[in-house]
Amino acid sequence: MNIAVIGGGSLGLLLSSYLTENHKVTLYVRRAEQRDLILTKGISLKKNGTTKLAKVACALIDDLDEHDVYFICVKQTHIDRLLPALERLPETSKIVFLQNGMGHINKIDRLRAEVYVGVVEHGATRTSDREVSHLGVGKIKISPFKTTKDETALLEANLDERDFPVETVDDWEALLKAKLLINAVINPLTALFDVHNGAIVENAHIKHLAQKLTEETSQVLGFHYDEAWQHVMLVAENTKENTSSMRADILNRRETEIDAISGYLLQQGNERDIPYTSFIYEAILALEERGK
Amino acid sequence: MNIAVIGGGSLGLLLSSYLTENHKVTLYVRRAEQRDLILTKGISLKKNGTTKLAKVACALIDDLDEHDVYFICVKQTHIDRLLPALERLPETSKIVFLQNGMGHINKIDRLRAEVYVGVVEHGATRTSDREVSHLGVGKIKISPFKTTKDETALLEANLDERDFPVETVDDWEALLKAKLLINAVINPLTALFDVHNGAIVENAHIKHLAQKLTEETSQVLGFHYDEAWQHVMLVAENTKENTSSMRADILNRRETEIDAISGYLLQQGNERDIPYTSFIYEAILALEERGK
């Protein structure tokens, strides 16, 4: 397939370097500096102590061309500035949104193209503009969102590889909500306390706060608390050595996705009913402001 | 007067070095190591770039002798282990409790001695077992708590000095509650976000959280919110360069006084009504556990 990967962060670099083995891939980035670096030196993928080099076509997002499939790998907060270009894409294009949170959902159903949403369960860290470390191998789950001709199975068949599994999921809402739960509990707590994911279950007081946030998130999203908490604990244990993306953002003084995560829950819920979520939302914004 | 200062922390060192100028002072500490250091080298008081040496008698708390006045300068959390010794003191002794929080109030009214409570508005940091920096000159306010023969005015007259003012206050409850308000808002927030006191009003999101904590504290202690918030802002601005004692405790991996402060409010109030206080209480305990 002819694939566009939009966004030069950790996920964009990871996808580009894997998909380029069997597909024609163009990575779209925002800065000319990063484009030139990738065009001349390629993307370096580190995994289990070995490094693999991928030569990938690279262009600026402003020069977006036509492709079969578009993987949107920018942060939730950058979706708005991308929408005008995506609105011009023909009806036959497939666009796959891989954002955390659900803030983009109301915006993407007016696109002409076939729209899919997905969640990424890989652990990956960008160590430079052209280098990415693949720390935890997970899955990419893709679900049809707005489509007249559901081709999720086709995407899966084309993309699925041993080292880079892709799975089809029917219910996009359940898929995104399950990811949102994890993001609303593990991400802000690990960022606030500057701890790895395992601290969610290892530190008794962070665990207590995680339970409160799980209660509130379950209430807003319509989950049973017990199942939700089991899920949070499982993910925290499975990724216990990992640094969450929000903690990495705070450590690197970057803007976080707190608005798309806890901010989304606050929009759906009543602030008085989810005070722990409200506290953590302000706390992450406070860390962002402190880091400026 | 013949004065006992109990506790070798920043406040105990500060009081001992000032009071020794006009009084016979014995400083009581817990560790023989600190006692020996003070007996041989004295207490070094730093202020405005100059250093003053005070020769002070020093003994272990276990060897507590009889004095006219006892200043209790241990942390709230250490009051319990001190009570048996204080219970043995004669009725004519004056004991002045200078703790943060109000957790000790129920325990100290069964002492035989005359009991006073006070709050300390000095900024002081202990830099070693025998060195203390006097960073912000404030006041010590003393109020009669349980006394048949109120001699607060006598204490004030005897202790008040130009560089070390002592003031009498009638209403001990109002005095302690006003201090508790400050401690419940400024201390945990500056500790959690690792910021100086001024950030309470300078960082918009920390300020938002401070307002929420002020609302909840006012509700429990019976303050008007507007006046309480004015008071918090005034103190934060007046001490904007200061490191709160709780932040210093977290930075030095010491136990904090969160139980005597936010923990006290949680005991008084209903957790559901003061969720921000409940969040910050768990958050400080999480930092303590992380620091272990």
Structure description:
The structure is a homodimer of 292-residue chains. With 292 residues, chain A is of the alpha/beta class. An 8-stranded mixed β-sheet of chain A has the order 5-2-1-6-7-8-11-12. In chain A, helix 5 links the parallel strand 11 and strand 12.
Assigned CATH architecture of the largest domain in chain A: 3-Layer(aba) Sandwich
Largest interface: A-B, 22 and 22 residues
Which sheet architecture does the biggest sheet of chain A show? 8 strands, mixed
Number of domains of chain A: 2
Strand order of the largest sheet of chain A: 5-2-1-6-7-8-11-12
Terminus-to-terminus distance of chain A: 42 Å
Q: Write down the Rg of chain A.
A: 19 Å
The count of β-strands of chain A is 12
Instruction: Tell me the overall shape of chain A.
Output: globular
What is the typical, i.e. mean, pLDDT of chain A?
94
CATH T-level topology of the largest domain in chain A? Rossmann fold
Unreliable stretches covering 5 or more consecutive residues of chain A? none
